[in-house]
Amino acid sequence: MVVKHQRSGLTSVDATAAASSDGSVERVSNKNRARLEPRTLDELLDLSTEELKQVDIARMNLLCAKGLPGAPDQDSIEQALEMIDRWTERVRFETDRHLYRVHDPRYVERWNRSEARFRAETMLQVLQQDCGVHYNRDRIFEIDFSRSQDLFIHGLLPDDEGKINGGTCASMPVLYAAVGRRLGYPIYLVTASNHVFCRWDGKQADEPRFRETFNIEGTGEGGMAFHTDDYYKQFPRPLSDLDRLQYHHLETKSAHQELAMFLACRGHCLVDNRRLGEAIAAFEQSDKLHPGCSLYREFARQAMAMNGTLPRGTSARADTVRQILDRQDRAVREAFQRSQRMTPEQRLNRLHHALNRRHPMPTHPHQQPGYTGPNPHHQHHPHQPPH
Hints:
This protein has helices spanning 41-45, 49-52, 57-65, 74-97, 108-111, 115-130, 172-182, 229-232, 241-247, 255-272, 276-289, 295-307, 321-325, 330-339, 344-356, and strands at residues 2-4, 11-15, 18-19, 28-29, 33-37, 187-192, 195-201, 213-216. The protein is mostly helical. The protein has 15 helices and eight strands.
């Protein structure tokens, strides 16, 4: 059933997502809920925080790409969403077909009888092996944010010729979340330093067997893993207590925080296409959506510095650190104090580094023993602070 949205001409759709089993395990279902369907970026940005929760994360991501080089038009966006729906049904079918393995003694060591982990792994396996979702190898050593296909999920879907560009950690976790949520899975986005990954966060799940919390790493070449938060404190680069505080890393993102991330991706694409005024507007909108994260303010100031519009005497670094630290515990205070033990020359070099370098260098983390992903030559993700 389609209903007209009173405020902005949006439509809302009553949608039910359900996943069936082979009869031995009960059916997975979502409660019926209205889903808002904005068709323009302006309509999306006009929604309240509560209304954003009703917008499909895939639609949200694709709308943030509109107007960028290589981005889909509205008709193509609707076709992309239909493709994701078809892929979801493929995942549902394969999951139901193999669901018996959760309780099969032959597989007990693999998932430890966790239906949630089985479902997450099966979803990624089907998307990667059957649907062709993969990392874009061209972005391993050549860092280029000018192409929207590498930052948004349309690059993970077949084009008019049936070819798939591939994605990065900016887009692959978004697609996993979009498919997972269609299946009723509590999958959300999380950031680390230079990286984005998924988290199954089922603490509030209606289904008792979904009430688990674990991280899902699926940006490698045909591999996945369930890493702890401690892993991401070092991968793909060390994450300090101060950075976790300032940039809200390792936190499960809400809908408006996810939108802030997508707008930041838009801003980085605009920067690399020298559309600096639009980039500044995108970063400022991100900061408005997630004001507690100083990262977007820093991105805006960097773009202003490049555009020659940074107010005189203003640093490209956010100036709210001390205010934040006033509310934090001793460990974070000590981390900040250590960062202040720099000579004037070191501080000047750090500021110069932030103003003149748009993106950090790509990192090359080592693979873990027995682990098939993530990509050992992982691309830097744009949602990162200057250093």
